[in-house]
Amino acid sequence: MAKNTGLNWPIVGHQNIISYLEHCLLSGQLAHAYLFVGPSQIGKTKVADFFSQALICQNFSEKKKPLPCGLCPYCRQAQNHLHPDIFRVERELNDDSEKLKKNISIEQVRELQNKLNLRSFLDSFKIAIINQAQALSQEAANSLLKTLEEPAPKTILIILATHQHLLLQTIVSRCQVLKFLPVKNSDLVDYLIGQRIDRKKAKNLAALAFGRPGVAIDYLSDQSAYEELTSEIKQFISILQSDVISRFKIINELVVARDIDGLKKILFIWSKVIRDLLLIKNSLPNLISHAFIGGELTRVAEIFSPKTLMEIIKQLNLTRRYLDANLNPRLTFENLVLTF
Fold it and tell me: Domain of 195?
């Protein structure tokens, strides 16, 4: 959790970033745009929420601490996503499929620009939080670039993305880039124990989260999410031991049932299983993340050589890049399982 005396942010890890943002707030040396880069559920959104709340907090205008206070009317509005000077942009739902649209559209960015050009309702900063900015369409990205090139007074953009190479380099160059790294396992364990769960379960959930607090919290609060993860891991173990026809059948079901984000999540889970198999092959079973199925993983590890497992990891990363490049998901996954 954040230990800074000037801030009141219940954040797990990321102390270097919180300290830097505290300096920005207390010194008044604020950039007009920040780019938060890191994996999903690592804490980018939560830090963006508390940073924006601190900027509009009554304490900030009165040069008091803590920031945010969490009690003034402006903080309460921000907590409920009702503050009139904080704007959020993210992928919208498709009315027909009820799935998230592929891109953030230029219409969304233009609507944001219109709002940012208006006078502040409460004479505060105008703040835009753009989530999953890697999903900006080409037209939307170019339009956003104009806002970054000619920022309005007292306007701050907080842009969130998984990888900065997926954004226009001209956008990246106009932002203060803050890289969110995986949280230390010990910090996650301490946080989970603080939520009144036993140490063994805390260690298990922290290992499954791979340094992403949001994942650990999801598994802690939602048993169905934990059960779904277990099912996906066992399905992958089944794929590794199946013939090609059976693999293709499972892949067909996966691709039909999931959108691109869901497929990327599957790739992440698969890569961590392969990591465990490599650790077992290198006589390091105490370091595996999925200890609850350690026996099954040990049996599967006997099927593959370390060289083959390294090649599978390479192909998993390549498949992820193919999905980023909008290649056909079915073909990319079929090509992937042919390498197993």
Answer: 184-219
Tell whether the model's pLDDT for residue 246 goes beyond 90: yes
Q: What is the rounded distance in angstroms from the CA atom of residue 268 to the CA atom of residue 70?
A: 36
Q: Is residue 8 part of a domain?
A: no
Does one domain contain both 66 and 163? yes
**pTM (2 d.p.):** 0.83
Sheet holding 33-37, edge to edge: 86-89, 126-130, 155-161, 33-37, 176-179
Question: Bridge partners of 127?
Answer: 86, 156
Q: Is the peptide bond before 68 cis (omega within 30 degrees of 0)?
A: yes
Output the six-digit token pair for 50.
């508390």
> Using one digit for the tens of pLDDT, what is the confidence trace for 111-156?
999 999 988 888 889 999 999 999 999 999 999 999 999 888 899 9
Average pLDDT over residues 234-261: 90
Closest among 192, 195, 194 to 207, alpha carbons compared: 192
Q: In 263-276, which positions are buried (b, 16+ CB within 10 angstroms) versus exposed (e)?
A: bbebbbbbbbbbbb
Q: Are 171 and 142 a contacting pair, CB within 8 Å?
A: no
Compute the distance between CA of residue 255 and CA of residue 337 in angstroms, rounded to an integer: 13
